[in-house]
Amino acid sequence: MAQSGKPITSPVPEAWYPTLAFFMLTIGLLLSAAFFIYEATSSKKNKSITKELITGAVTSIFLGFGSLFLLLATGVYV
User: Fold this and answer.
1) Is residue 9 part of a domain?
2) DSSP 8-class letter at 51
3) The pTM is what?
4) Is 77:21 a contact under the CB 8 Å cutoff?
5) Which stretches are transmembrane (predicted)?
């Protein structure tokens, strides 16, 4: 006999999608702006590759998940 499986559900309630999208995109854009300001105002001697990589990675994560939740909030299920 075939057993009926449980439907796949999101670990995050659907009502939170717009809020998560807004906050994650806002944080990502602010970090992106801080990264560009850091790049424009610091000299070659004062730049740190570690700080650049960490800032870029965190910014990428926030913008990526923010975009995902924005798509989910608008009904585009990816």
Assistant:
1) no
2) H
3) 0.84
4) no
5) 20-41, 53-77
SS3 labels along 8-50: CCCCCCHHHHHHHHHHHHHHHHHHHHHHHHHHHHCCCCCCCHH
User: Higher-confidence residue: 68 or 3?
Assistant: 68
Distance (Å, rounded) from C-alpha 38 to C-alpha 9?
Answer: 41
Q: Could you report the per-residue pLDDT of 34-64, keeping only the tens digit for each?
A: 999 999 999 888 899 999 999 999 999 999 9
Going by the DSSP 8-state scheme, the letter that residue 15 receives in this structure is G
Structural domain includes residue 28: yes
Which residue segment(s) compose the domain that 68 sits in? 21-40+47-74
25 found inside a domain: yes
Could you tell me if residue 52 is inside a domain?
A: yes
